[in-house]
Amino acid sequence: MKKNLSACTTVLVGKNASIDGSTMAARNDDTFGPLNPMRLVVYPAYRNHPNQVKAYLNHCVVDRPADGYSYQGTPNVDYKNQGIFDESGFNSQNVGMSATESVYANERVLSFDPLNTESGINEDLIVATTLPFINSAKEGVSYLGGLIKKYGSAEGNGVIFSDKNDIWYMEIVTGHHWVAQRIPDDAYAVTGNRVAIQQVDFSDPDNFMWSEGIQEFVEQHHLNPDKHGWNFRHIFGTANFFDQHYNTPRQWYGHKILNPTVEMDPLGFDLPFIMRSNRKLTLEDVEQVLSGHYQGTPYDPLGKGTDEEKHLFRPISLNRTQNSHVLQVRNDLPEAASTIMWMCFGVPTFTPYVPFFGQAQDMDKSYRETPMELNMDLKSAYWMYRALSMIVESHHAEFAQQDLDYLKDCREYLYRWVNTVAPQVAGKDNSEVSAFLSAESHKMVAELAKRTKDLMAKLIMHGLELSKLTFIMDKNL
Q1: 344 classed as catalytic
Q2: Which InterPro entries does the annotation name (predicted)?
């Protein structure tokens, strides 16, 4: 089995830790290469239709129930070669799922419970086999846990489930073993490609869930290196040189943004997964983490550190980031318009997060249809935003401020749009809600495309003036 997606960053915020009482579950979806076109779609509900889904990257075949809810997905365009990887979305029951954060177990535990690479569940189909069938975040953990027990896991994956009350983070680390933790309401969490969950309290099933027999497995094979406690990261995770330069700095920077008064070491192996901030966290805070490249530190590849410093750590936001998303459940809005997936195609540093209501069934064509290659008509949202990213970075010193102004204006417009549109669903039935939200979304997407293309035109014209192929004659000669 080939594993195409291997590097992501996750940010989770409990409802009492956010400024507006919303839950926020966010992740960057990073790939091996810079171009891996994606779409944003809505899969329809179905009834009395038992079926199977088959993985493209191994031989896994999963039987699905006869009834399934509609749900959003962000699949790859080249699914036959890259796998489907639906990645993220809400279902019609207002349950969100983001999958996956790739995690890696150590060789000790894998020697006793190896991954089922040939026919186990993998990221290729993990959303399609779970999201259409769950009614809450906690049920998502139970449901996926049952699938892992039946089919095994082909890889190590961190999976997020969210609803209006809860966020659960589930880490599948070996062929059959996993642990999940509920993020406390007054806390946030940050991780990036390492086993994140730390101390597990097996006497607290309201906040922890685990695979059958995991305690006996660890005890039987003498896998716990600690004299006291049961630290999931220490038992199942890794702590090596690669982690210190690829993984731990991203967790460090996330805490630096969300909890700046706490000093931490970017090379630390025991950076906390869950913390409490001294302030309420906003959507902009989450976006700032996911669009981060160590701004304000010597490690910024676009900054003023030494060449060694600028290449010491792997940034959070990359040209390999195919999408960045925030699954937000707004408890201050009518329930029918409370779920919003803020989707960012392009490099998050340079492009906006665009809101899509979970109950809007008609996805805009510019997101639904993505060609494999760039077409200069820029009708595809994926290619439009990736083109903007390239333009801004090509003359970053000259274009950065205009891009920041554009992003600020987009956020203001989009926040106002959500807060104006969402209350209008009150009193509408389900079909009216979907039609209304879909129609309003089409208008919003068109406005964002206009603003983006206007900026691109200005930057291109400015860029033409920056050419080094110029010459000014000294008039005094």
Answers
A1: no
A2: C69_dipept_A-like, Peptidase_C69
